[in-house]
Design goal:
heterodimer, A: about 325 residues, alpha/beta, about 25% strand, B: about 270 residues, 7-stranded parallel sheet
Chain lengths: ~325, ~270
């Protein structure tokens, strides 16, 4: 049985430049409710904007009582040292017991810095979080998804970065009204020494975010650069398209699509790899998928060792046939 | 330009890796190697020194075997090495490790100022990628992390480092005046291989071995005593059951669709 932590659980409300919440935030809020009272941390843009009415209502639906609007003045909140200083101040003023973030690369930097500033124990890339024996305990897989561990935090404040897709987002049983509280934090000069000279938001895709998608269709060397068939299958399944290191290095698809230990880590319900051999670096980024399907014309491809459903065959005939059949079955 | 590059000795990613009953990585020494991503860090440091002059010092923290990672960096062209070796360090979490690394960098800086600390983006054992940002904070250095491109140029205000980095939703260019800390991804460069000359030269290069007492780091900061988290369970993930492998006879796509439907995956 889970006993709630004493102080609030502060959730970083990652959002796009247009104010829309990032998909995994709702998962964090769902996980946070099981731990205790949920507060949100909202970073105000240069114009100091609050979350809009629709976002506030959504946050209330997910049980957020208080939204701390972090205002760092003229410092650039996109810089992780700035955000970390702001969150450190919020954690302290709210008396939070837990800080929850999505486990993106920039949020892991924030987690490291908040941990250093507050003395908190930090667990990143967690797949679940709970309270056990009055301690915050996070589950995570290590060694390319081959080991499961549970890690307990010994300090009064726990900083946990949860992987996108780990928790099924569910609204709270009872809706609350989220109240915005402005929190001005003065950032020291140290955090301002880095200058952002370019910042280009990637164009929003009509497909789900790779890191958070429940279905991921991945192409490797065997595609020879032709991702059209993968995209069609992904669209039928409502999934995202990913790639191996080789495919991104060849320039067949952007580097943001790379799945692996140095790219995006995915844990979808369904992974379909086409022309993917399954090198250890790639497996490290996808091995904890629920169901793994592999299509490769090389029966010796290592991915078959971990595939639930493996097809030795030509992806250029298998994929269109599967796509057409799924379309037919869905009517 | 004086560059400290962090290198770590980790279990070979191709080998069977395991956690012991104490929740620590089993380091039997048999199949360890330099963390692959640290080779990108070494390469980045060497390229900068080749361009601007200066020296590269390879720094590691870890048990006796860990010196192999420093040796590798020396073979590739680093000028000197430092190995922080102390039994009390075993079991340190990221913050214990960072305290030791920071103390070692400060000690090096007290001899001759350090302009740049370069690290890989993550260690392929723990893969937390927490060290670069935490170390930058501890050393109070500007951080330029996850660089897929790195340049350093002489400017009016001194050396200016500029990095390009790809995040989940954006691409950024960041710059800062040195001294600074940079972490590089595997996109940043193509690491070189050691040649015979490098391997021979490395034998003569100095590797300073330091203990915690030399660094003024208390034993309670590190090891299990200083760790803020503990592994309470560790188990090998069960292997997948009911696996199906078919060879396409012309209907594999249909069978895949049927499988997805049967297993409620669509």
């Amino acid at each position: 049985m889970t006993t709630p932590v004493t102080g609030p659980v502060l959730v970083l409300l990652d959002h796009a430049a247009d104010g829309g919440l990032r998909q995994p935030v709702l998962e964090l809020l769902t996980a946070a409710r099981a731990l205790g009272t949920v507060h949100g941390a909202w970073t105000a843009d240069a114009d100091g904007s609050d979350p809009d009415a629709r976002t506030l209502e959504l946050l209330g639906t997910y049980g957020v009582e208080t939204v701390h609007r972090l205002d760092v003045g003229d410092a650039d909140v996109r810089l992780t040292p700035v955000l970390a200083q702001g969150l450190t101040a919020l954690v302290q003023s709210a008396g939070a017991s837990v800080l929850l973030l999505t486990s993106s690369f920039e949020n892991k930097e924030v987690a490291a810095r908040v941990g250093l500033a507050t003395g908190a124990g930090v667990v990143v890339d967690a797949s679940a979080v709970e309270v056990a024996d009055d301690r915050v305990v996070a589950a995570k897989t290590v060694f390319a998804g081959t080991w499961n561990t549970r890690c307990a935090v010994r300090t009064p404040l726990a900083v946990i970065a949860l992987k996108a897709g780990s928790v099924q987002a569910e609204p709270a049983a009872e809706r609350v009204t989220a109240t915005v509280v402005a929190q001005a934090v003065t950032v020291d000069d140290g955090a301002r020494r880095v200058r952002v000279t370019e910042h280009t938001e990637r164009a929003a895709s009509t497909r789900p975010d790779l890191a958070a998608a429940q279905v991921v269709v991945v192409g490797g060397r065997g595609t020879n650069g032709d991702f059209a068939l993968l995209e069609e299958l992904a669209d039928v399944l409502g999934g995202a398209v990913g790639a191996t290191r080789v495919a991104t290095d060849e320039g067949w698809i952007g580097h943001d699509a790379q799945i692996g230990q140095t790219g995006v880590t995915v844990a979808p319900q369904l992974y379909i790899g086409a022309g993917v051999s399954g090198a250890v670096h790639h497996r490290g980024g996808m091995q904890s998928a629920g169901t793994i399907v592999a299509i490769n014309n090389d029966p010796e491809a290592p991915i078959f060792e971990i595939a639930d459903f493996g097809i030795v065959g030509d992806l250029f005939t298998v994929l269109p046939q599967a796509t057409a059949e799924l379309r037919r079955l869905k009517g | 330009m004086r560059i400290v590059v962090l290198v770590k000795h980790v279990p070979d990613i191709q080998s069977e890796r395991a956690l012991g009953p104490d929740g620590r990585v089993v380091r039997d020494g048999g199949d360890g190697t330099i963390n692959e991503l640290d080779e990108n860090a070494v390469e980045a440091a060497l390229l900068l020194v080749e361009q601007h002059g200066g020296e590269v010092v390879a720094l590691t923290v870890g048990p006796a075997d860990a010196v192999d990672a420093v040796r590798r960096a020396l073979q590739l062209g680093a000028d000197a090495g430092v190995h922080v070796l102390d039994d009390a360090i075993a079991g340190s979490d990221v913050f214990g490790t960072v305290a030791v690394l920071a103390a070692a960098v400060r000690r090096l800086g007290a001899e001759t100022p350090v302009d740049l600390v370069v690290t890989g983006m993550a260690g392929l054992d723990g893969l937390t990628s927490l060290v670069p940002a935490a170390l930058a904070a501890e050393l109070d250095l500007p951080q330029l992390t996850l660089a897929s491109e790195l340049t350093v140029d002489a400017t009016e205000s001194g050396w200016t480092a500029r990095v390009r980095r790809d995040l989940d939703h954006a691409t950024e260019v960041l710059e800062a005046t040195l001294p600074a800390l940079v972490s590089v991804t595997d996109q940043a460069n193509e690491p070189r291989y050691p040649n015979f000359k490098g391997i021979m030269a490395a034998r003569k290069k100095p590797v300073e071995v330091l203990a915690l007492a030399d660094l003024g780091v208390g034993a309670t900061t590190v090891g299990d005593a200083g760790a803020r988290t503990e592994v309470v369970d560790a188990a090998r993930r069960p292997t997948r059951e009911n696996r199906i492998l078919v060879t396409d006879d012309g209907d594999a796509g249909l069978r895949l669709a049927a499988y997805l439907v049967e297993n409620k995956l669509v």
